[in-house]
Structures are given as C-alpha cells and as structure tokens.
Amino acid sequence: MPALSALPALLPLFNALPGAHLLLSPDLLIEAVSDAYLAVTLTQRENLLGRYVFDAFPGNPQTPEAHGVRTLLASFRQVLATGQPHEMPPQRCDVPDPDHPGQFVERCWLPHNSPVLDAHGCVSQLLHTVVDITAALRDEAHLHDSHAREQTALAEAEHQRQQLHTLFAEAPAPIAILAGPDFVFQLANSASQRIFPGQGLVGNALLTAFPELADTPILPILNGVYSTGETFVVQEMPVMMARYAGGALEEIHFTATYQARRDEQGAVDGVMIFAYEVTDQVKARRGVEENREELRRFQFMADRVRDPFILMRADATFAYLNPKALEAWGYTADEALHLRVPDVDPIFQDDVFRQAFARAQQENIPPFETLHKRKDGYIFPVEVSMGGLLLSGQPHMLAIARDITEQKRTIDALRESEARFRTMADAAPSLMWAVHPDASVRYINRAFLNFVGLDDEQQYAALSWPSYVHPEERDLTAHALTSAIRNRALYSLEHRMRRHDGEYRWLLAQGGPSYYPNGELYGYVGSAIDITELKQANEQLTRANVDLDNFIYTASHDLKAPISNIEGLLHALTQQLSPTIQQAALVQPILDMIQGAVDRFKQTIDHLTDITKLQQEYTPTTEQVELTTVVEDVRLDLLPLIEETGAHLEIDVADCPAITFSAKNLRSVVYNLLSNALKYRHPDRVPHIRISCRCEASWLVLRVQDNGLDGVQQTKLFGMFRRLHTHVEGSGIGLYMVKKMVENVGGKIEVESQIGLGSTFFVSFPA
Amino acid sequence: MQKLPSVLLVDDDSTTNFLHQLLLNRLGVAEQLVVAENGVEALATLTQTCTATSTNCPVLILLDVNMPIMNGIEFLEAYQHLPLPQKQAIVIVMLTTSLNARDLDRVQELPIAGVVNKPLTREKVNTILQVHFQRELPQ
C-alpha cells in the first residue's frame, strides 16, 4: 500500500472513517477498506484486501435490471483516464449474503469515485466512496419525501466526497491534531477550515479558538482520550459553536472520532480528531421525527373520536385500538394486546381477513356491514369503512366501525310500518301508489293492480307506468312527476290511464314526498281516483249551462215578438172600439189590465235579457269608481220614491276609497239595495236607511242598513225570481243580479236580519 | 207629406205584418205596401218589380231577421249579388225583437241602413222617414 505507507499514521484513521470507503489500485485491487464499508457490505476486511474488486463484489445475477457492475467499472475507467472525480447516480448493487451463500442482500448505493494523484499528477489510486441509501429509499416509499431525502443523501455524499478528496488527493483529510494537555491545534486541514472558515486554528489552543466549547462535553471527551488512550467515537453530538470568530453561535452536529496520538514511546501526546459535520442529516432526520409526531397527533385525535378506530396488522392483531373501540368491545387495553380480529368479528375469520387486508392495500374498501362480538359474547351490527396504510414500512389496515344497532332498529320499524301501510293500502278501494325518487314504481296497491289487470306490482314495475298512461298525457305526466320530485312539491294531475279492459279512464292522481327519518327522500306516495264519470258529469253540466244560456236568450228573444204583437193588437183594437163601447163599465179597466199584464211580461223578458247579458259579461271593464258619486246618482234617481215614502237617508261613504269595479254594475248594486230598502219598508215605520262602508282585511265592505221588513232567508233571497213579500211590486231579479255581479269579481254579499228591526246588507268587494 | 212609392215588408209573422200594414196605412207612408213572408219571396218581388223601367220598385224594405226558408241575413247576402238597376235607391231597415249584441254583431257588415226594435211605432216610422227620405209625418 504505497499511498498509505506515505501516511502510515492515517491507516487506522482511514479504517475508522465514518463513511464507507474503498481504496483501489489502478488495476482495481482493494488496498484499504473502512470499517463502515465492511459494515454496510456485510464483509470482513481479510476477505477483501488484495482482491480484485469485482471478484469481491460480483453483483447479483438475479437483478438483470441493475447494471451495477458494468456502470461501476465504466466509472472507474473514466476516473483513471481523466483524473477527475466522478459522481454516479444511485445504483442497485446487491451484496452477497454471508449467512446464505449464493443469495444476495438488496442494497442501493450512491457511489462516488475520486482519483488519488501522486506527486506527478498521475492517478495512483482510486477512492471509491459509497453511501448506503437502501434504507433511505425504503423510507421514501412511505414518507413521501423522496425528493428531500435524495437531496439529503446527495448532500451527504458530496460532503464526504469533499472531505475524503481533500484528505487523500489534495490535502490532509478533515483532521485536526490537538497536541498536549492544552489541546493546541497542531494540524487543522482545509476541510476543518471549511467548517470554520473564519477561524484561524493552527497554533491556537482549542479553547482559545472556540471558547464556547468550555462547558460542552467535548472537553471531558478529549481529556478522557488523552488520559486513557482509548479511541472515542461520538455520533451526531450537538455543539453550540460559532463558524466565525465572534460569530453567532449555532447548533452544529458532529459525528467524530477522537483517537489518541502516541509518541515513539507509546505515550499519548495528543488527540487526533476526525470531526465530521452531520448537521444536515440530523435536520433531515428531525423531519422524519416530526412525521412520527404527526402520527402521535393522529392517535391523539383518534382517541377522542366518537367511533371506534381500529388499526390492524397483517397477522390480524391490533396495532392500535382507540378507547371507543375498547369500550364497544368491552376489553381493557391490556386484554386487547392478545386480541385478534377473528375474536371480535365472527365473520372476519382468518381467510376473510387476509383477503380484505390484501385488498385494502390496493384500494379503499367501501363501507359494508358486519357483526362485532363483545367480550361478553353479545353480537351487534356495525358498519365498517376500511383502508390500507403503511406505517414504518409495514402494511396496516385502518377500520372505522360504527354501531348500527339503532339504525337497524329504525329500518326494521320502517319495514314494519311499511308492511302495515301495505296491508291498509291493499284494503283501500282507491288506487294507491308509491314511487322511488327516480319516479320508478315502488309499490301499487291491490285496487291499482286490479285496475291495470296485473297480478303483482313487479309486473307493473317491469312494464314501467308511463306505458299505461294515455299517449296524449304521457310526456306531461312524466314531466309533472319528475319536476314535483325535484322540487319536493305536491303532485296533482288529471290524466287518462288504460284500464285492464283497454278503456282509458280519467284519473285524478295526487301525491307528496315521503321521507326517511334521516331526512332522505323515500319517494312519492299518492293515490288516484277514477274521475271519468265526474268529468263526464262536468262536461254535461257545462253543456247544460250553455244550453240554458241559449234557452234564456232564445226565450227572451222569441217571447218578445208575440208580446209586441199582443200590445200592437191591443192598441189596434182600442182604436176600433166605438166611444160607446169604450165607455161601457168594464171595458177600460179590462183594457188597462191587459196593458198591465203585457207590461209585466215585457219587464220579465227584459230581466231575462239582462241576466243573459250579465252571464256573458264575465270580465266587465273595471275602473276606479267613487262610491260617493254613485250613491248620489242613485239617490237622485230614486228621489221621487224617497220623497213619497218620507224616508230618512243617512249616507256616510265620503271616506270610502274608490272601488275597482264596473261603474255600471256598481250603480246597479247600489240602486237595487237602496230601492229594495225603500220598497220593502215596514208599513208602520218611517224608512230609515243608512249607507256606509268600512275596510275589513282585504275587503271593502258596503253596508246598507234599513228598518224595513225582515225574515229573510239568505239562500233564497238571492235566488232568481225570488220575492219574499207578495204585497210589493218586484220581479225578484234584483238581488240575483247584484249577487252575480259581485261574485263575478270575487266579492260576496251577505245579509243579516233581525226580527222587528230590519235588515242589513253587506257587499264585500275585494280590495 | 209625399208618400213613398213602394214599401216592402218582409216578415213571416202574419200578425206583425197585419199590424205594420195597419200602422203604415194609417200614417199614409206609402202608395203601395208589398208583403213577403221570407227572403226568397222578397228576392222574387225585387226581381219582378225592380226593372229598368218599372216605377213600383220598393224604396224601403223593412226586414225581419228570423224567418223560415231564407232568413234576413241570408236574404242580405243574396241581395248583395242581385243585379238591380235601382239598388242605390233602396233603403233596408232591419227589424229585430231585441237590440241584442249577438244580433247586432252579425248585421254590422251587411248593407243595411239601420236597425229598429220591434214593434214599429209612429215615432220610429217618422225617424226612418226623416233620416233616409228627408220627409216627415204630419202632426
């Protein structure tokens, strides 16, 4: 070993280097190997020294994808040829398993090859440095910070490369030699200087250069090595130091080897330090520990959640059970240590568990129901969600189990109530139905089945209900139902549906939303009644009404001609009568009576005509009408009657708001009410009539109060041709007309009558 | 007052015709009163009497609406297509039993001079004479 023979004192140091290094001759024979290298490659020094490197590490023939040997050889040749260091990408290069000959242990490396140059600048040796990143790469897999790790590994490799390069190629290694009991820097190479670029070290005592070390463990260590001569290695020791003289103290981590230096007599005369800074690595590892901290936090939360959290290992034991899980199963934490999944889940026996566990590593298992068994043997239903996860590189399965006993009970209750509903519905004579939220049939009752002529609802569901609906209403029905469901609105529709005999019948179908106890939509439930007869009756009624209208019109029209003729003939006859006959006792009275009869006949016809007109006039033109004006007009019209009867009129409508109504009709209303009050006066009383109004909720109420005749029966009062008092002239049409006019605009008319006091009419107009 | 040369009464009701004839004669409205009992008869009368040379073509037609065979409306539609030389001079007044909107709507489009509610009276006749013939019954 010519190179090392130049620095014989450094050979033990080389061996003790924390990094994994191999010193090779130009023909690739192993000249020196560090202890760390032996450790990571599972080899012994005596088996390596002097051997051809690829004989010692032949490469794993079972990993053809790893071209470890070939790429490494190429790198060596490059360094030998160029004299320049070469950094290789991460390599897979398995090492022989010493316990199992012929087998290999998986290893991944970050290799770096540096030339060692002689005095002439020729390559005298190769320094092969590797960083074992096997574990790092595995860590990456579950820590998901591969990038950060790779960076760390690279930085570490770079750092080592720097140090060793300096040590063996350019300058003395990052070594310091402290001489004497005061630990004066005898040697501090440039690598040391690089750690402390601002410190002048050589010639200074350690405490002079780094006074901050006085109270650190470094001094006792140095003293120990100095006094005992025993080598001392510290790993990742944190020391507060300044990188610059007078600079701020910072935490620097060292992995250091302290070795006694002896003089010729073998007495310790100093301490050699190989101090290797690992601050970056420590920081990186702290990151990992923070991840563990996160796991602890997860556990903290899991401990407090409502549902049992169950963390299982591949062997069906429990890695963790939160208090809820223990409580649900009735075990203590200690008892749970010996528990396995099959003990608490009668369904998840080992085979089932293994399958589920394997599946959970691939995908999340959707919630499913299973049974859990308590310590006391009680079995209860649970809903479980499961997923796989890696913890410390080991597959686990996390399950969240929720006791669904209550839920099951509710569902059972629901089933029971549904069964009861069906029994009831089947007994009902009307058609009853229930649909799913997607409008497909859930259920129809016996009456419905009989209607469509089927034996069971599956047949109906299979045929889909729209096929039974009349084609003209099919789209309308489907649309009405789906939009009702979408808006959670009531559904009501008339449509035709095919009966078992092929006849389409009109149905009035009505339904509403029904919900589960949790608020979820169960579907729509409703009924349908056959309204075919009703519809036909309605149509007949409408026709009859039209016919009646036409009849009244025709009657009024056709009766007019003959009565006109009778009147004309009466006049003609009168003119033919000689004065003698005209003066005969009864002739003139008879003629007058005929004329009276004719007049009444004509009046009746006129009223009939008015009614026809009114019924055609469903939307008379409305306007804002002032009640004051209308009442005054009517009063003037009726003035002769008012004066004749000596009636006392009290009008109090000045404050009334205008009424939205047809002016002509309002006049009719007021006229009829006022003239009635005058006509139907009490024979023994002076008529006292009060007209007033008031606002009442959404109504404007006109009030006409009299002290006249009484004993009215409301329903009859407003009928056509009704007269309650025979001794007074009247056609009985007035109040019927008033009622019609008021009702046509959504109003109403009422009457209150008190025996011996008179009547009060209330006409309410919608405000 | 100068009498109208000829007046045509078209009505299926004989009583009405009798009364109208009685009235018009008493008032001395026309030289000649012709009666037709439906639209077809009225058309026949017009074709016969209204030639280029005739002098007894009616100048006033009092037309009923409801008649069998051909009613007043149908008559007017046919009348519009009738090629009569003295058509310009003929005034048609429709007689109805009611001034009902249903009837009025129908006749508005037709070539009539006016609508009068039955029965005819002296006043109504006088109005027709004043409006369409610029003459007046004596007091």
From TrEMBL, chain A:
It is an enzyme of class 2 (transferase). Transmembrane segments: none annotated. Pfam families: HATPase_c, HisKA, PAS_3, PAS_4, PAS_9. Residues 554-767 form the Histidine kinase domain. One of its GO terms (molecular function) is phosphorelay sensor kinase activity. Its EC number is 2.7.13.3. Residues 366-416, 491-543 form the PAC domain. It catalyses: ATP + protein L-histidine = ADP + protein N-phospho-L-histidine. Keywords: Kinase, Phosphoprotein, Transferase. InterPro entries: HATPase_C_sf, HATPase_dom, His_kinase_dom, HisK_dim/P_dom, HisK_dim/P_sf, PAC, PAS, PAS-assoc_C. This is histidine kinase. It comes from Hymenobacter roseosalivarius DSM 11622.
UniProtKB/TrEMBL annotation, chain B:
Gene3D superfamilies: 3.40.50.2300. It holds the Pfam family Response_reg. One of its GO terms (biological process) is phosphorelay signal transduction system. Coiled coil: none annotated. The modification 4-aspartylphosphate is found at D64. The keyword Phosphoprotein applies. Residues 6-133 form the Response regulatory domain. InterPro entries: CheY-like_superfamily, Sig_transdc_resp-reg_receiver, TCS_response_regulator. The keyword Phosphoprotein applies. PANTHER family: RESPONSE REGULATOR RCP1, RESPONSE REGULATOR RCP1-RELATED. This is Response regulator receiver and SARP domain protein. It comes from Hymenobacter roseosalivarius DSM 11622.
